[in-house]
Amino acid sequence: MRGKHAMRSTVRKTPAGSAKARLMFAFKKDTDTRKAYLAGREYYSEEGTTFELRLVQKIKQQQSADPTSRPGYPSSLGVREFIRRATEVALGKSSRAVVEDRVLGVQTPGFTAAVRLGAELLRHWYAVRTVWCGPVYLSSPCDDSLAGIFQAAGIQDIREYYYWDYKRRGICLEKLLEDLTKAPEQSVVVLSASAHYPTGAALSQNQWAQIANVIMRRRLFPFFLLPPQALCYGDLEQGVWPVRYCASQGMELLCAQSFSHCFGLYGEAVGHLLCVLKQKSLLFPMESQADRIVRLLWAQPSAGGACVVATVLGNPAHLVEWKEEVKRIVERCMLIREILRERLRLLGTPGCWDHLTQQGGLYCFTGLNGEQVDFLSKKRHVYLLPDGCLNVSAINSRNLDNIVESIHLALTTSD
Amino acid sequence: MSVFGDVPLAPPVAVFKLSADFREDGHPQKVNLGVGAYRTDDCQPWVLPVVKKVERLIVEDAGLNHEYLPILGLPEFRSASSKVALGDGSAAIKDGRVGGVQALGGTGALRIGAEFLRRWYNGVNNTATPVYVSAPTWENHNSVFADAGFKDIRPYHYWDAAKRGLDLAGLLDDLEKAPEHSVFVLHACAHNPTGTDPTREEWKQISEIMKRRSLFVFFDSAYQGFASGDLDKDAWAIRYFVSEGFELFIAQSFSKNFGLYNERVGYLTVVARDSENLSRTLSQMEKIVRTTWSNPPSQGARIVSKTLNCPELFAEWKSNVKTMADRVLLMRDQLKAKLQALGTPGTWDHITQQIGMFSFTGLNPKQVEYMIAEKHVYLMASGRINMCGLTTSNIDYIAQSIHDAVTKKSHFFRVENKLNRSLGRCLINMVGVFSPDVLCCCATLLPQKEKTSFTDH
């Protein structure tokens, strides 16, 4: 066939978009006035909208009025000041790794990009002599795009480790440790530092120490995911404890960070990848290889959002103001969780709902199954992700009653 | 024992190394003619007035949605980008068979396009499908396609060093000989690095062969508006191919024509056979984007989209773009005039015949070396200069430096016999692919007899 039909039979029919897209489509078509969409990724205010932190808005205005001209292409690795602050916020200023200058930091256009860069670095340069190509262990369950990212980077061997116990509605540490112990040496293990997506679960410091132990003993490599730092406990340090702990134990690790949620900068795609190395001499080669990979993916990250974040994190007064705003977000989420739990208890909804308040952050694994989730969207116009995960912030005083009643009905209606 | 203990240092990127060397140079008259970014006559980056205006509008917009952008990008940006490339009255757009993906700059657009083609073009798994890039070309083309999984990346004849123009015969020959369904990366206008574009007649010839031989058209369009100062003129080749019924990709960059280098605004326009084809293609591209950056950054896209979608702002933007293009044209005229006035050996018409940001001066590696080491004028080993680096204050110095380089350093490739001629051509063709150091080595290996003037080849 001629050029006209170059793509005639090449593109297979794909199902109409992902599950998420289908859900959003159904929600948009839904004409019921009580409809509620609880499957979004962003933080929603009480008014039901995403918003920019007041501080962020202020800084953006300042930056746009700044008469000093903008430089040309930024470095492939990103804005220096941002990298410095992002690294400090994860590891702490006095971290030995930071002081000894053996941390690679790269600004990325968002969280996914940070994970992708980490995956590419691993595929090209992890244990180079052994021609490593996996396995990579992901938690069960996990963000459904994670496997795809590693595969896109060329790592096909993706496995799961036990994480969420659906019956107990909590993390099963024993099985988790068992899976890690059985993993082949040099496996990469992807771990959520706090507020796991989609379960919202978190491990205690004691549990983390046990995991770190196994990782060291079995020569595994930890790749931490840190999207909602500070949004879990309202405390920057607490959310990032396992990363700092592993670094302090002298481990090498990767950590993908996002500043979208905690700065309300979703549209700005502000991410960061850090790599803690054992020796300072490795920094330059690793940086040069990261640079090379970046130049073939997106060339340079976008500057705007990173400059805002750097400005906030680098200024003590801004930092205080920012922490205040974040604390309010976190407290609201915690409050919603408590109210939800209490209301379900009062209604006598079957099951134990303690996990709602034991988890933290934006997302919550309700424990509802596929059928029940379906019932919620089709019969009650309340939209959750198919795995029963909901975004706590999307619940507000206007839709709370309907949501509580709906969950109750989903669990008590026998169909 | 580090798990990264055996990681080697990656080779430096020539153009960035050049800038680094330039920064370290303390000479008062130093000039950087390397990096491809616009500079004013004061040698400063230029924030377009329309961009400043629109940025303020955006910051003050209380009703702005702060959510993640959809994976394929900001809808208003997407439609506006396709329109700017294909034209308002585009039949393809009216037929609903044009769409695309917002990307992180032109590089991001190329990468998404390459990843898609490798997976889905002409059957699945195209790792062995040949991808042709011009000789020379932007140094990243080769690597972007290689990293996307293509194993067979070949040069096609483009630059004729002897006549300092397009090697049309070589190009057409390569098109005839390429395996059917090969992918060809074409520069829509203002070819980087040569600044030499095919004429309209020549594009028609290229198109005829590509259609006949089912070759895939992948346009790289980083300079629309910047080349001639006229958006439509610069898009002529793209629009001609679309009107000829090709399915094609266009990787667009708004970095240069909006001066938005650090906001990473790019777009991959997809022109498909029909709307059904288009939607399937986009659905697969969405999956690719999902595992690359997932949601693109909004700031740059908002600026571009607001500008393109508002008639007054659009007019203002066009005039800003013309300002940049005009300054480049002025520098071209003046450089040629000064070289002619100095009596610098050789013909310098190519400086004003070439188009866009770059000029392939024709200086050889030894002369380039001289320019950098003795004159502190930094340019690429290929002889490529960024016209934007010339200003009214430094143009005399630059012209004089070129003059000195040509008159003092005229040892270059001898083309006495066929072997040497083809070696010389081969070397010039390799310029886009190999590092300057390799080329300098090769240059010294060629037999050098007596000095000849710059004009005989």
Short synopsis of the structure:
Chain A has helices at 19-29, 54-64, 80-91, 96-99, 111-125, 146-152, 173-182, 205-217, 236-239, 241-248, 260-263, 283-295, 304-314, 316-347, 355-358, 370-380, 400-412, and strands at residues 36-37, 103-109, 136-140, 158-162, 164-165, 170-171, 188-192, 221-226, 253-258, 270-276, 363-365, 382-383, 389-391. Chain A is of the alpha/beta class.
Describe the overall structure.
The complex is a heterodimer of chains A (415) and B (457). Chain A has helices at 19-29, 54-64, 80-91, 96-99, 111-125, 146-152, 173-182, 205-217, 236-239, 241-248, 260-263, 283-295, 304-314, 316-347, 355-358, 370-380, 400-412; strands spanning 36-37, 103-109, 136-140, 158-162, 164-165, 170-171, 188-192, 221-226, 253-258, 270-276, 363-365, 382-383, 389-391. By secondary structure, chain A is of the alpha/beta class. In chain A, the strands form 4 sheets. In chain A, strands 2-10-9-8-7-3-4 form a 7-stranded mixed β-sheet, with helices on both faces. Chain A has a two-stranded parallel sheet with strand order 1-12. In chain A, strand 7, helix 8 (205-217) and strand 8 (221-226) form a beta-alpha-beta unit. In chain A, helix 2 packs across helix 13 and helix 7 (173-182) runs parallel beside helix 8. Mean pLDDT of chain A is 88; it is low at 1-10 and 12-16. Chain B has 2 domains: 14-47 and 326-407, Aspartate Aminotransferase, domain 1, CATH 3.90.1150; 68-309, Aspartate Aminotransferase, domain 2 (3-Layer(aba) Sandwich). Chain B has a 7-stranded mixed β-sheet, sandwiched between helices. Chain B has a two-stranded parallel ribbon with strand order 1-12. The interface between A and B is large, with 84 and 83 residues. Chain A: Belongs to the class-I pyridoxal-phosphate-dependent aminotransferase family. Chain A: Its EC number is 2.6.1.1. Chain A: This is aspartate transaminase. Chain A: It holds the Pfam family Aminotran_1_2. Chain A: Homodimer.
